[in-house]
Structures are given as C-alpha cells and as structure tokens.
Amino acid sequence: MRKTYKLFIPFIIAITALISILSCKKDVKKPAETNKIEAKTKINEPSNNLNISLLLDLSDRINPVKYPNTAMEFYQRDVGYIKSVSKVFLEHLSGKKMRQADEKIELFFEPSPSNSEINTLSNKLKYSITKDNLSMDLINNIENTYSKNPLEIYELAIKDDNYVGSDTWRFFKNKVSDYCLEEGHRNILVVLTDGYIYHKDTQLKEGNRSSYLTPQEIRKNKLNSSNWGEKMEHEDYGFVKIDVDLSDLEILVLGINPDPKNVYEEDVINAYWNKWFKEMNVKRFAIKQADLPSNMDKIIREFILDPV
C-alpha cells in the first residue's frame, strides 16, 4: 500500500499543476479585449473641461422704461445670472489640477452692437485657460472682469436706446457650431432672453414655421387658448428648422418673460424652444422663467456642476 501511494504522488502533482495553469488562463483577458473595454470607458466618460458661452439678448426687453419691474429690473437680473455663471466656472477651475486646466468662457451677441465700447468690454470677457497661463492673478482677473463689465455693457445698451432686436435664430444657424463647440470639452451655452425672437433682417416664413416669435405672432396664430398645444402640433407651428447637429451642446435658457395678457404664453414659448432644440439634437437643455438671481443661482450651479 505504501508503495502504491508513492507512485500516485507525481500524478497528483501533475494534475494540480494543470488545473492551476487552466485557471490562470481563464482569468487573463486578451490584450485586444482589454483595449476595447478601456476605449469604451474613455468614450463614455464626460469631459471635465468646461467651454461656457453666454448669448445675450440686448433687445428692448432690457429697457427699464418700457418694461419696468419693481422687484428687480430685467437687465439687472441678467447681470446677476452672468455673475452666477462666472462664479461656478471659477469654482470648477479652482478645483482642478494645474496640468489638467483647459477651460473657456466667453460672451456673444447677435447681432453685434454698433457701439464699439460694448464690443471692447465683451472682448475682455473672453478667456481661454490652460496649464500655461493658470494662476491666482488670472482667476482674480476673471472674477473682477465678470463683476463689472456685464453691468457696463447693459448700461451702455440702455443709454444708446437703439434696440435692433435679437437675431437668435441666425446665431444658431450660422455661428453656434463654430463659436460654442470645442472638442474634448463639456460645451454649455447659456442664453439670456425673454423667450421672444425678432430681428428686422431675419423674418423667414415656411408654412407655419418662422424665424421669429413675438406676442403679436402668438395672438395672430390663435395660440392663446386652451387648445394651443393641439393646434401647434397638428398645424406644425414652431421655429424654422436649422440643419445643425448640436448633440454635443448643453443649453440653459434663462429669463423667459411671457406677455401676462395670455395665460398660455409661457407654455407656447417653452414649446417653441423645446421643439427647436429637439430638432437640432441638443444634448441637454433647460428653459427657466425670469426670477431673482438669488433664486436662479442654485439652478445655474446644478446645471453646470452636476451633468446628467
């Protein structure tokens, strides 16, 4: 018996070794499979580099004489929103390692104001931050500039009293892809508007679609009664379609201020913008009514810092 047991020992060792080898083979992923998994993970990770654009509507909606508001003038609300955006941008920037910095923030109008002073002030609000220029001095400079320049821009526009309208439709058609999209970034566009769009040089009509939206147009189209939604859908009201793909853009619209004479006005405005954004494949968007900056700060913060 002792002799037979000794003969089996080498056989048992060989079987054990073979099982170990086969187990190890099972656990090791092929290099090609590993690369595929890593690549997939990389694609699905949202970029941590912010590219924030602000589009300002300097039409007569900001005129404190024509549209006064006792709680806070609408142009002052805009200034508060811009400060909140810049504050959140700086918080994001301060939390990054220097070698990872690749952030942008800038401000646009459509059309550009004829006042050269306004254009000079807005150019100073364009920043491109990288590891080569990031410093406390730059962060302080951005904070100071965004604290004072927006207010000066609005005050100059009101003083000029030359409200040419807001050509937001044309901005999306011709400029948004070039100005607001950067590869390898989270692209966010903040639009400050009352929700209406009008410019004398851009008045397109295609069926029931238009490049503009005014309270007069909503009344004319009889979208001021309880059946507005059904009418809008069946008769295809909305903004004229634009052939752009904005699947890499997030949009936050702030300041919607509907005509109080129509209880359905805000719903109609929201429906126009919703339909338009969906047709352009906008990645993510939110549309918010005008409110005090202190109330809007949380919404701005969550939209920028908490991507879905």
UniProtKB/TrEMBL annotation:
Protein name: Lipoprotein
Organism this protein belongs to: Arenibacter algicola
